[in-house]
């Protein structure tokens, strides 16, 4: 799975959706990721063996760590040599690999290419739009088929095309991990912060959830949140009259054990997910059935 643009195109939520579906179908999936900016990116490592988490977010990367914590039965293998990671996962008994950001990884043969595409923003492209002819499944935002880049490009698509939307999957308390209904925060003034590639998308998701955000702090993508950053967040929370903080799942894994620095300020975590056209599930099941009989 992957895309043709640089950063911030819902690849992590898609990986989580795929893992969830595969586990529900009785498979033993392993996520194969580069582990961007993690200590194991160059050397490789096993972040989760499907029984326990064997490393930290600093070692495996923030996104793989989030996935390892969310799917304890899945394997999570990181490192730039993804072929070796796949081999290690197979030897450990995992029967299917979800290759994160692997559309341009030509060295490794794939059985099914799933690509996300959205023309909502003007972003740098890794490949021209004609590359969208290659995937077996293309996921696009509603409206792309008619009047969007897909329609204008007039390219015969080899694979199936399904629409997807981003939704709020849950809101939880950072410390207890207990879920909190959005309506329970309706009267809470929030200071939001994040270190992701497209922070305005997080801001839009908060608005769509009906939450009151009085201030928004943006940090660089994959920001590690040193003490100076947390002090800045707490100062802003007080100066802006916010009652609590809210951040993304990716950011939350990096501050989950920093309770002393956060003090008694409530911190909430908003997790997003994807809804995909029903035909996508049928297509995935058909693929798995064919692979089983091959």
Describe this structure as you would to a colleague.
Helix 5 links the parallel strand 6 and strand 7. Helix content is 30%, strand content 23%. The strands form 2 sheets. A 7-stranded mixed sheet has the order 5-6-7-11-10-8-9, with helices on both faces. Strands 2-3-1-4 form a 4-stranded mixed sheet, with helices on both faces. The chain has 294 residues and is an alpha/beta fold. The protein folds into 2 domains: 148 residues, no CATH class; 107 residues, Rossmann fold, CATH 3.40.50.
Low-confidence stretches: 1-6
Strand tally, please? 11
Mean pLDDT over all positions: 87
Q: How would you characterize the largest beta sheet?
A: 7 strands, mixed
Q: What's the number of domains?
A: 2
Order of helices and strands: HEEHHEHEEEHEEHEHEHHEH
The radius of gyration computed from the alpha-carbon positions, rounded to a whole number of angstroms, is 20 Å
Strand content: 15-25%
Structural class per helix/strand content? alpha/beta
Distance between the termini: 22 Å
Indicate the percent of residues in helices: 25-40%
Strand order of the largest sheet: 5-6-7-11-10-8-9
Question: Quick gist of this model?
Answer:
The chain has 294 residues and is α/β, with parallel strands linked by helices. It is built from 10 helices and 11 strands. The strands form 2 sheets. A 7-stranded mixed β-sheet has the order 5-6-7-11-10-8-9, with helices on both faces.
